[in-house]
Structure formats: C-alpha cells, structure tokens
Amino acid sequence: MGVQLSKRCALLAVALGVVLAAPAVIAADIGPLPALKYDKAKAELGKRLFFDMRLSGDAGIACSTCHDPANGFSSPTALSKGYPGNGHFRNAPSVINAGHKKVWMHDGRLGTSLNDVTREMITEDYIMNMDMRIMQERLKQDPVYVKMFKDAGYGEPSNGKVRKAIPEYLMSLTSKNVPFDKGTMSAAAKRGMKLFTGKAGCVQCHNGPLFTDQKAHNTGVPENFDVFLDPMNHQAFLAFAMFQGIENYMNLKRDPGYYNVTTDKADMGKFITPSLRELKYTAPYMHNGMVKTLEDVVVFYNNGGGEDSNKSSLLKPLGLSKGERSDLVAFLLSLSGDPLTGAEYVWQEPYPEEYEAIANWQKVRN
Fold it and tell me: Which of 29, 240, 247, 322 is the most buried (most CB within 10 A)?
C-alpha cells in the first residue's frame, strides 16, 4: 500500500512539490528560518536604493517596481513589467528570504551571491538597463546618498558598494511572525502538514527552512503565450535568449528554463523549486504566473500536473479529496507571516528631482 501510494503521490511539483521519499526523515528538516545578521546602516542605504528609480537607465523603474512590497515583494502581474518600452517573460519572485538562498532566478542561472544578482538586475537591458558608471555619478550628485554611504562605512558612492548595500537590505527581509515557525497553526493547517509530509509528499522537493530543495524540476506548467504573442514581452525574451547563447532562439516558443544553464535537452522546461514561504501574498504563481490561486495550484497537481515532453515521470494524479486539498492550502498559508510593508522595510521619503529644470539655456553660467 505504501509503495503504491508513493508512486501515485509523486511530486506536487515546482510550485507545490509532491514526491514521497522517507517523509518522516525529511519532515524533520523543515523548520523556522535561522536569523540573518546584517548591518542596519548598510541595510537602510540598500532600502533607499531598492526603491529609487534613478538606478534604472531612464529613471523609470526601480527594483520595487517588480518586487512590490504589497505583493510580498513579488510581481502582482503574471509577467513582470520589465524596462519601459519592454515587457517581460517571467513573473518576478518574492525577494523575502532571498538572503537564505544559494541559487537565484527561476532557471537557476545565478548561484554565486546576491551581489551578482543585484548587478545583473540593474545592468540587464530588458530589466533596469543601467550603465553602472552613470548610476555612480547620479548617486554622487545626491547629498543624502553621499551621507548615507559615508555613515554606512562605504566612503563615497560607487557601483560596487551599491552591489553590497542592496543585498544587505535583502538580508533584512525575513519572514516574521509565521504561524508555522511559532507553533500556532490552526487544526486544518496541522492536518495539511501531515499531508505535506505524508500522502501528498510535497516535502521531498519543498524541504529545509525555505521549503525548497533549490533544484530544477519539470512539472508541466503550461507556457504563458503572452510571452510570444505580445511583441514587448517577446523582445525581452529574445534579448535574454540571445545574450545567453540559446540556439535557434528566434523560433523558440517555450521558456527553456534550466536548459539555459546546462544546454542538456533533458532540462528543457525545468525550473528551480520555489520557496513556499509568503505564498499568502505572492499570487499569481509559477515562473510565468499561469496559476492564479493556491487552490488552483493544489488542484493542478492533484490532477497530475500539465503536459510536457520532459515532465517528471513521478507526476501522477494524487487523489486528494476536497477536504484534504483545503487542509493543504491551510498549511501553505501558515507559512506566511506579517506583511513587510511598514517603514522598517519600505522607503517612504520622497526622492529629489534628478536635475533642476533650466528655463533658458542661453543664460546658463558655469
């Protein structure tokens, strides 16, 4: 019976994983997040930078434009906005608890440090499109930044120090007052946890304090064809694929996912298992925003996932009842804490105008 159940319950996938493998052992691995140490002055500087549109090429987009605090620091739209004049081809994930990760981006292409993630997001042409030399000069022209960099021990503003300050701020974004961590789950959530670690088997992919194995899986999530039908989104996809060296990208009509890292065709359509923390705030779900609610996610994988030539052979219909699905959702919601939307986490002071308007250039004096 246990063997058959293990085969049936295989992998609730990247967004809700469902493989059974020694659940009693793996279950012990899930638990509260360890505290992260960070420098408050550096994090405060990073917070101002995170919400400052002047860090983008035309000062039209900030980190917070896609990582919206009101949406759990994720994108509230299926596909993120991207740089003005562009669309995007993925949903920006939450950066809450990003300081705990070892692998970043949906396709797992960055696995070194948040410093590298920050650099790519600021300089990538379809995201923030900033020349960091220009960014550095903009920061030097702002007296508030000059003081904040000095007070943080960084000296004068520089692009290298920006890549340190923003990660310091991200280290401050950690789940807070989470029912699961505090042991205050509802009865339904407790039943859901038993499903999570038992019958549904989610714990094999969603394990550890982050509830992710940080590995790539193909679970049959359908393509979001707005990526290819909307020219703005498609040009962002093409810019990404060309820069990454993906062959035949002009004719590609799917997100390659982890294939971008390995160039192994078996990895086409695989994506890194996301953390399940803060799901209460971060809809829509999946790398492309194709699933609108947590209830929909559970139903999708209860049905055995989607259709894909590379889909994991472990994915099978789960046979969860309506009540079991409801309990599983209750457990997933218990992994979310207080919204991080107050002044401690969100920069609320106005920014200065970048340049004062010059009424008459003929009368300008140096």
Answer: 240
Out of 8-22, 36-50, 53-67, 115-129, which region has the weakest mean confidence (pLDDT)? 8-22
Q: In one letter, which amino acid is 273? A: T
Burial 13-34 (b: 16+ CB within 10 A, else e): bbbbbbbbeebeebbeebeebe
Q: Report the 10 Å Cβ neighbour count for 154.
A: 18
Q: CATH number for 40-170: choose from 1.10.760.10, 3.30.930.10, 1.10.150.120, 3.60.21.10.
A: 1.10.760.10
Do residues 195 and 324 touch, judged by C-beta distance below 8 A? yes
Asked if 188 contacts 196 with a C-beta cutoff of 8 angstroms, the reply is no
pLDDT tens for 275-330 read: 999 999 999 999 999 999 999 999 998 998 899 999 987 788 899 999 999 999 99
d(C-alpha 50, C-alpha 160), whole Å: 15
11 in the Ramachandran plot: left (φ > 0), alpha (ψ -120 to 50) or beta?
A: left
Candidates 204, 214, 255, 218; CA nearest to 88 is 255
Domain boundaries of the chain, sorted by first residue: 2-34+178-224+265-333, 40-170
